[in-house]
Design goal:
Shape: rod-shaped
Catalytic activity: ATP + protein L-histidine = ADP + protein N-phospho-L-histidine
Organism: Roseibaca calidilacus
CATH topology of one domain: Beta-Lactamase
Distance between the termini: 36 Å
EC number: 2.7.13.3
Helix content: 55-70%
Pfam family, one: HATPase_c
Keywords: Kinase, Membrane, Phosphoprotein, Transferase, Transmembrane, Transmembrane helix, Two-component regulatory system
Radius of gyration: 53 Å
Order of helices and strands: HHEEEEHHHHHEHHEEHHEEH
CATH architecture of one domain: 2-Layer Sandwich
Length: 476
């Protein structure tokens, strides 16, 4: 029955209903034909009984006297009177089975054995119109005054009964065909109408294009039936999915802002320290304006401090501004990430291990913005996990057409809420790291994968990204 699987339900149900109607029609036709056959058998038996009984009354004395001519004359008169009736041939025999007379002497000669005529003959109670022949044969005893004095063999024409049976069969076939055709059409339309909500539900589920849409209220049947409840349940699920997606989007935005807040706090300390030195340099210039060497040293200090502030500001802008065009990743982006993470590393007195392969990064065709977000969020969480005087690291290399970013830290293992945010797409549980769900979304949008390992007191998170992002995006 596997061949039925591709057929839509709106087709299979009418076909099943039509098959059941064909079965019912066949059974009903058999019952009608059986009833008609029983009526016809009863009719032919009644006619044969009347024929035999009438001949027995008329021929009984003649057979006892072996009056052959009177027997023949009686049969001839009976045949003449019964012209147009069913009797085709009748023969009368004595007690020994020798023919005394027949309506067709040439076919059944006198003094012949009646058994030759009655080879296929049956008794009166077994007489039946079986449809094999238009003539049925009957062999019955000739009884007179309670005594069997001979035998009567007769052939009866039942062609009209067979014609009536064939006509009834034809009418049944035509009637059943018309009824089945009409009922199948009506059933098909009715089932299609009843299954319209299911068809709409299937279409809504298969043509979502990543965003399910609710079933319009006009397409939901009235009442509280199973299909109505199914459609309303689906609409509730669509609403819940949309609410979940919106909540996760807002949470990702909030986590992004939390990460930026932490980064801004670190950058504020990074900027504030040089500002103190710059202000001292300006005071020195004002106080010792007449000493060129002091002024030159102070100017050099001002230049180094301002350049450092410029680099920090530029890196911050590159990290957070939204470029109208996608810019591909370069080794300078990792230098910016290192500059941005350095204040947090210094604040926590962390040991930073940095290994970036410039040739691998240069050969990649990956957008810079998402990669910077991924690396910075993972490094911020690694710094928080490593704690005071811990160790964090970043490795960027290419392997087999894949850009691999690996962030490590010597802190404790990641808790389950943080792992759920980083590795799963399910609902978010309370707790977890900052920006980890954003990292997963960004990696998934780039066609990448995330792997997490914690062993020997070190946590390693590896993000694998296709180096040919444009080709991957085109395939998706």
């Amino acid at each position: 029955m596997k061949w039925l699987a591709p057929i839509p339900l709106s087709i299979k149900l009418p076909l099943l209903a039509a098959a059941m109607m064909v079965l019912v029609g066949t059974v009903a036709s058999q019952q009608v034909l059986r009833s008609l056959a029983q009526v016809q058998d009863a009719r032919i038996q009644e006619l044969a009984r009347m024929h035999v009984e009438g001949l027995s009354v008329a021929l009984g004395p003649l057979v006892l006297r072996h009056d052959i001519w009177e027997v023949y004359d009686t049969l001839d008169r009976a045949a003449q009177a019964g012209e147009g009736r069913r009797m085709v041939l009748t023969a009368v025999a004595d007690e020994r089975g020798r023919v005394l007379a027949a309506t067709d002497p040439r076919r059944v000669p006198m003094d012949s054995d009646i058994a030759a005529l009655a080879g296929d003959a049956v008794a009166l109670d077994n007489l039946s119109v079986d449809g094999a022949s238009p003539v049925v044969s009957l062999l019955a005893p000739l009884t007179y005054q309670g005594r069997t004095v001979g035998q009567i063999a007769t052939e009866l024409d039942v062609s009209d009964l067979l014609s009536e049976r064939r006509q009834a069969l034809l009418f049944l076939i035509m009637g059943n065909a018309i009824a089945i055709g009409l009922l199948s059409t009506v059933g098909f339309l009715a089932i299609r109408w009843m299954l319209k909500p299911v068809t709409t539900l299937a279409r809504q589920m298969t043509e979502t294009q990543g965003e399910p849409h609710p079933i319009p209220a006009s397409d939901i049947p009235q009442g509280d039936g199973e299909i109505s409840r199914l459609a309303r349940t689906y609409n509730s699920m669509v609403g819940a999915v949309a609410a979940k997606a919106e909540a996760e989007r807002r949470l990702a935005e909030r986590e992004r802002f939390v990460a930026l807040g932490r980064l801004s706090s670190s950058l504020a300390h990074e900027i504030n320290n040089p500002l103190g030195g710059l202000l001292n340099a300006t005071d020195t210039i004002r106080s010792f304006a007449d000493r060129p060497e002091v002024v030159r040293q102070s100017a050099d200090l001002l230049d180094r401090g301002l350049r450092h502030l410029r680099d920090v500001t530029r890196a911050t802008l590159d990290q957070n501004r939204m470029d109208p065009e996608t810019r591909m990743l370069t080794p300078d982006d990792f230098e910016d990430i290192k500059l941005l993470i350095q204040p947090e590393v210094s604040r926590l007195a962390l040991d930073l291990e940095w290994s970036v392969d410039p040739s691998a990064v240069t050969g990649c065709c990956v957008p810079a913005g998402p990669v910077r977000q991924i690396a910075l969020n993972l490094l911020l969480n690694a710094c928080a996990a490593a704690g005071q005087s811990g160790r964090v690291g970043l490795i960027a290399c290419a392997k087999g057409g894949t850009l691999i970013l690996q962030v490590t830290n010597t802190g404790p293992a990641m808790p389950k809420p943080a792992l759920d945010r980083l590795l799963d797409d399910g609902p978010l549980s309370p707790g977890g790291g900052v920006g980890l769900r954003l990292v997963r979304d960004l990696a998934r949008n780039l066609g990448g994968a995330i792997n997490h390992v914690h062993e020997n007191g070190e946590t390693r998170i590896a993000v694998s990204l296709p180096t040919s992002w444009e080709a991957h995006d085109a395939e998706g």
